[in-house]
């Protein structure tokens, strides 16, 4: 009677574990067919996995079967090659998330890298990523507290620190809906019952109070999804993901010189050194100032509010220039590369 080698058994255990991780329930007969062994062998291999710490539960029913569940401790994990590379890359850029996990991520990356085959290790090492941690970072415990309140649909009570030289903390409450990472910072989006309006809060300025408030029924988020909602808020729009102030101008520059700095604006070449730019901002003054940075002649096509904003901006600039002390009051500045 042939006896399976330990290498064959180990390989089969890894295949069995991979199958159990791929779907929720596996009939015993189907597992035996996929592995090319008897159902009795499958039962023995399942017992071996349990001894290694994998919580494999037998599922009762006409077909019988097995299910891999969450356990009380972390057993050895199995990843295919693409998953292992993805995990290593994710750990390498984790420092840029602002979640305060950079040290743990670095240790985890070292652990993963040590067990990677040489060919995969070279792929990971060839990826050069310089991830700068944002400042300030959000405490991991705060992120977990916010996430727990979102899942439980419980009102969150917290102290919110305002920015500025004289930092103060205001007691607030919110019905939390989403926790989102954007540009290295974490934001909480939720409904403010005191102001009867949607609000966003920077998580690094929040200090949660214990316990949470009462449970609530979640409202529908404006815009339909949190990405649209947050993008609209950063544009100064209360609802749609569009700039509240949009204008159209002609710039005396080639389109190739405008496009890299146009952001989400629409660039259209109208001549060798003429470009139509349609773009927006959160205020007319901000839009005029943004367009002025192109440092060229500007023809405003519309609307009248943008033309009025340029006029007001020029008056402010004139008043600022009139208040200067003159050339004698300021030292000359050297241009880059010398005078």
How does the SSE layout of this entry go?
Layout: H1 6-22, E1 25-26, H2 28-35, H3 39-51, E2 56-59, E3 65-68, H4 81-93, H5 102-115, H6 118-125, H7 140-152, E4 156-161, E5 169-182, E6 185-192, E7 197-202, E8 206-208, H8 226-234, E9 245-251, H9 255-258, E10 266-271, E11 274-281, H10 284-292, E12 298-302, H11 304-322
Antiparallel strand pairs: 1-3, 2-3, 4-5, 4-8, 5-6, 6-7, 9-11, 9-12, 10-11
Helix pairs in contact: 1-3, 2-3, 4-5, 4-6, 10-11
Structure characterization notes:
The chain is α+β, with helices and mostly antiparallel strands. The protein folds into 4 domains: 6-68, Arc Repressor Mutant, subunit A, CATH 1.10.10; 81-125, no CATH class; 154-234, SH3 type barrels, CATH 2.30.30; 245-322, Alpha-Beta Plaits (2-Layer Sandwich), CATH 3.30.70. It contains 11 helices and 12 strands. The protein has a 5-stranded antiparallel sheet with strand order 7-6-5-4-8. A 4-stranded antiparallel sheet has the order 10-11-9-12. β10 (266-271) and β11 (274-281) form a beta hairpin. The chain is elongated, with a radius of gyration of 30 Å. The N and C termini lie far apart (92 Å). Mean pLDDT is 81; it is low at 328-339. InterPro entries: CBASS_pafABC_assoc_protein, DeoR_HTH, HTH_11, PafC-like, Tscrpt_reg_HTH_DeoR_CS, WCX_dom, WH-like_DNA-bd_sf, WH_DNA-bd_sf. Keywords: DNA-binding, Transcription, Transcription regulation.
Number of helices: 11
Strand content: 15-25%
- In the predicted model, the low-confidence regions spanning at least 5 consecutive residues are 328-339
Terminal residue distance:
92 Å
CATH topology call of the largest domain? SH3 type barrels
Nearest-angstrom radius of gyration?
30 Å
Strand order of the largest sheet: 7-6-5-4-8
Overall number of strands: 12
Class of the largest domain in CATH? Mainly Beta
Largest β-sheet summary: 5 strands, antiparallel
Query: How many domain modules?
Result: 4
Coarse structural class: alpha+beta
Order of SSEs, N→C? HEHHEEHHHHEEEEEHEHEEHEH
CATH-defined architecture of the largest domain: Roll
């Amino acid at each position: 009677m042939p006896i399976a080698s330990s290498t064959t058994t180990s390989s089969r255990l890894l295949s069995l574990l991979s199958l159990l991780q791929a779907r929720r329930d596996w009939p015993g007969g189907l597992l035996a067919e996929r592995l090319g062994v008897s159902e009795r062998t499958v039962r023995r291999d399942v017992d071996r996995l349990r001894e290694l710490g994998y919580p494999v539960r037998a599922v009762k029913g006409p077909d019988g079967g097995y299910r891999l569940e969450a356990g009380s401790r972390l057993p050895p994990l199995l990843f295919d090659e693409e998953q292992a590379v993805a995990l290593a890359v994710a750990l390498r850029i984790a420092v840029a998330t602002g979640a305060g996990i950079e040290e743990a991520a670095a240790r985890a990356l070292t652990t993963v890298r040590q067990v990677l085959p040489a060919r995969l290790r070279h792929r990971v090492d060839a990826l050069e990523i310089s991830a700068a941690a944002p400042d300030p970072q959000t405490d991991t415990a705060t992120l977990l507290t916010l996430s727990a309140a979102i899942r439980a649909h419980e009102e969150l009570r917290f102290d919110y620190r305002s920015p500025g030289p004289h930092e103060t903390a205001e007691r607030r409450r919110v019905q939390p809906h989403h926790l989102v990472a954007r540009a290295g910072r974490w934001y909480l989006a939720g409904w403010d019952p005191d102001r009867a309006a949607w609000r966003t809060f920077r998580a690094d300025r929040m200090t949660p109070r214990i316990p949470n408030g009462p449970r609530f029924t979640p409202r529908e988020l404006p815009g339909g999804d949190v990405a649209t909602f947050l993008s609209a808020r950063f544009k100064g729009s209360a609802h749609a993901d569009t700039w509240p102030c949009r204008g159209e101008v002609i710039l005396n520059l080639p389109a190739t010189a405008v496009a890299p700095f146009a952001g989400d604006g629409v660039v259209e070449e109208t001549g060798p050194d003429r470009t139509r730019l349609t773009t927006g901002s959160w205020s007319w003054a901000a839009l005029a100032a943004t367009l002025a940075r192109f440092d060229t002649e500007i023809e405003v096509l519309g609307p009248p509010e943008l033309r009025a904003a340029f006029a007001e901006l020029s008056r402010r600039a004139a008043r600022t220039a009139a208040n200067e002390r003159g050339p004698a009051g300021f030292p000359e500045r050297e241009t880059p590369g010398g005078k």
